């Protein structure tokens, strides 16, 4: 039995317990469908462990935004050859944060469930190709 690699499962936003079920509905940039499932469609894990659990994802999202903004500032500094226009930096940072917000929404929750939730552990016996959900 081959196990699904953790990095692959995180990149494809799979369930942290079985690494098979999708965590989100729809595409990343589709309007109105960027929602998380209540339960894993494969192993029936309840993703929101307790009420309001995903408020903690805001802190992860904030850290992602800061890292992205610093990267965007460095790239703008390099590619603009140090133009001293604050509006250039402000506009580029705002555009980058808006464009990356669907990615931050998803991966902040993925990072929260994979790295910051000690109650959720990978269970290899659920990582099988069987399409019958474990209810
Ligand atoms: Zn699952």
Would you tell me the structural class of the helices and strands?
mainly alpha
- Strand adjacency order, main sheet: 1-2
Into which percentage range does the β-strand content fall?
A: under 5%
Radius of gyration: 18 Å
Distance between the termini: 22 Å
Count of alpha/pi helices: 3
* Hetero compounds: zinc ion
Q: Runs with pLDDT <50, length 5+?
A: none
* Order of helix and strand elements from N to C terminus: HEEHH
Task: Work out the count of structural domains.
Answer: 1
Helix content: 40-55%
Largest sheet: 2 strands, antiparallel
- The gross shape turns out to be elongated
Number of strands: 2
The overall average pLDDT, rounded, is: 90
Molecular structure report:
With 135 residues, this protein is mainly alpha-helical. It has one domain (6-126). It is 44% helix and 3% strand. The protein contains three helices and two strands; from the N terminus they run αββαα. The chain has helices spanning 6-11, 57-79, 86-115; strands at 24-25, 35-36. Strands 1-2 form a two-stranded antiparallel sheet. Helix 2 (57-79) packs antiparallel against helix 3. The longest helix has 30 residues, at 86-115. It starts with 5 loop residues before the first helix and ends in a 20-residue tail after the last helix. The structure holds zinc ion. Zinc ion binds next to loops.
What does this entry show, briefly?
With 135 residues, the chain is an all-alpha fold. It has three helices and two strands, in the order αββαα.
């Amino acid at each position: 039995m081959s196990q699904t690699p953790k990095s692959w499962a995180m990149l494809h936003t799979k369930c942290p317990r079985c690494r098979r079920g999708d965590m989100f509905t729809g595409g990343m940039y589709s309007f109105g469908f960027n929602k998380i499932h209540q339960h894993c469609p494969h192993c029936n894990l309840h993703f929101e462990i307790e009420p309001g659990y995903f408020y903690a994802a805001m802190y992860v999202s904030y850290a992602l935004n800061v890292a992205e903004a610093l990267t965007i500032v460095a790239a703008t500094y390099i590619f603009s050859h140090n133009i001293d226009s604050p509006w250039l930096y402000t506009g580029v940072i705002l555009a980058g944060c808006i464009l990356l917000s669907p990615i931050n929404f998803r991966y902040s929750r993925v990072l929260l469930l994979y790295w910051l939730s000690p109650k959720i552990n990978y269970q290899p016996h659920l990582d099988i190709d069987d399409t019958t959900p474990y209810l």
